[in-house]
Amino acid sequence: MIEFDKLRVVVMYEFMKHIRRRRLYIIMAIALTAEALALILVPTLMTGGYPDNVTLMAVILTFGASLAALGSVFFAGDAIAGEYESKTGFILFTNPIRRITLWTGKYLAGLLAVALLIIFTYVVMAIALAIIYHEVPIQIFGSLGLCLLYAAAVLSLTFLFSAISKGSMGATVMTLLFIWVLSSIVESILAFTGNPYWFMISAGGDSVALPYGSLRELMQGLGFGGGGGGPFGGDIGSFGTLTIPMAIWGMLIYVFGGFVGSIWISRRRQLA
Amino acid sequence: MNAPIVIENLTKYYGNFLALDKLNLIVPEKENIGFLGPNGAGKSTTLKILCGLIRPSSGQAFIDGINVVEKPEQALAKIGAIIETPEFYTYLTPVETLSYLGRLRGMKGQDLKKRIDEVISLVKLERWAKVKIEKFSRGMKQRLGLAQTLLHDPPILILDEPALGLDPRGVVEFREIIATMGSQKTVFFASHQLVEVAQICKKVAIINNGKLLAYDTIAELEKKYQTLEQAYLQLTGGSGD
Question: Tag placement on chain B: N or C end, fewer CB within 10 Å?
Fold first, then answer.
């Protein structure tokens, strides 16, 4: 039996795991709640109801999709660590399958599950925009592509932490702290001081909205900065720029670096 | 090197702790060999190395002439193993679990389905065949563990305390299964239950502190030490449990 057939089997059964676990539906509910809140709060809090510009509303709704991408942390936290922690590895690892095949299968199944979640969120977003504005901006496809890449990067990073951690919970918490706290803080400091920050994974998350326009343009659309108005004044103007190609490179580093790192570490790991 | 299991100068350190000390052992074809020793003697470490779960610090282990460290996938294709209390994915049923593991071993279609039915029937899990494993007791998981060991009909069985957690009826059934299979397969079987080992195996290896102390037939050991229990206690310094 060739490894590709084994890979297909692993992907199939791992995907079944994601479909059967409650966490997929919890993350889906959270993402949908975020979208619903945006749809309710924006017209309530903004004078004049929904913004005139459909692109601006698409940006606001994109945060829900980014949240779905972040959900990949919960799909992958136990991918490697779980086999050691729950001792299921004692059964799985005694089968004639290369570890790289096993981890790749788990990765692809996780990516498939999170892609399903993201696509679902974007479909909901597109329907909402079509109902409100009678149009859906074409840039939504670019945003979807970046969101999927961001999910792949987060998944790889989670795999890396899962390979290092003794337990699944540790891997999940470490990844969330890395992305939401450490990376976000460093990215903010780098951006505020006019330095490049495209290599931070949190910048990958920010890039999901870039197909709709630059950060400065978006802030101007909301009435902040850019031309000196709004509470942030000219500060936004000093922000380092993030372009789509830069963000793609940054995320690719995490996709490949995280995955290769996780394979390298887990190959050394023993099930004693 | 043609024997199903060959262990040569196997040494394993966990940090500074020496778990296996140049262990040498050959398990001949179609024999049931009991592997005895007190807790921490090195039994599980030996079996884990044979199953490719851990790497030795030095020495070599061969399954059917294949070096386990160099070609683990080829070596593992020849064995069925239960190591410690088996744990399974709780979201799958026994049928799905066996289907997953069978497919990883290249089994498929009606042959796989038929074989799954056979092994589930053999370990008497028919009533639970389509119930998610999250509801299973330890004994039921042990039965499923035995089912997955036999699924692909391997020539070599490596079993680490396989009757642990089984109720008395389960222990008897397990003994019957192994006794039947044992006539056609090579069985390397670690246990603390001397009575169980004596009923299944004709020959035993006794180890302590990672060293092989005796490797002989039970009949010979009984000649020398009166009983298998006495042999075990005297050889392991009375520390047997």
Answer: C
Question: What is the rounded (10 degree) CA torsion for B143, B146, B150, B154?
Answer: 180
Residue given tokens 């949240």 in the structure block: A67
Q: Which of A12, A95, A268 to mutate to test the interface with B (most CBs of B within 10 A)?
A: A95
The b/e string for B112-122 (b: 16+ C-beta within 10 A; e otherwise) is beebbeebbeb
pLDDT digits (tens, 9 = 90+) for A54-84: 988 998 888 776 777 778 888 888 888 999 9
Q: Is A99 on the interface with B (CB under 8 A)?
A: no
CATH class of domain segment(s) B5-88+154-235: alpha beta
pTM given for the model: 0.90
Query: How many Cβ atoms are within 10 Å of A255's Cβ, its own excluded?
Result: 23
> What's the average model confidence in pLDDT over A94-104?
93
Q: Is B9 helix (H, G, I), strand (E, B) or coil?
A: strand
Q: Is A90 on the interface with B (CB under 8 A)?
A: yes
Distance from CA of A6 to the nearest CA of B (A): 6
Query: Where do the domains of chain B lie?
Result: 5-88+154-235
Does residue B79 belong to the interface with chain A, where contact is any CB pair within 8 Å?
A: yes
Q: Could you tell me which residues come within 8 angstroms of residue B127 by beta carbon, excluding any fewer than 6 positions away?
A: none
Q: Do A9 and B53 touch (CB under 8 A)?
A: no
End-to-end CA distance of chain B: 34
User: Residue A272: what pLDDT?
Assistant: 76
Q: How far is B54 from chain A (nearest CA, A)?
A: 5
The answer to whether the beta carbons of residues B240 and B193 sit under 8 Å apart is: no
Element (H, E) at A260: helix A244-268
| Count of domains forming chain A | 1
Q: How far is CA A156 from CA A63, A70, A79, A111, A119, in A?
A: 21, 12, 11, 10, 19
pLDDT digits (tens, 9 = 90+) for A170-229: 999 999 999 989 999 999 899 888 889 999 999 998 899 889 887 666 666 666 554 444
- Name which of A94, A97, A106, A270 to mutate to probe chain B: the one with the most chain B Cβ atoms within 10 A of its Cβ: A94
CA distance B227 to chain A (A): 33
Range(s) of the domain holding residue A33: 3-268
Task: Sort strands B156-160 and B79-82 into parallel, antiparallel or unpaired.
Answer: parallel
Q: Distance (Å, rounded) from C-alpha B47 to C-alpha B231?
A: 22
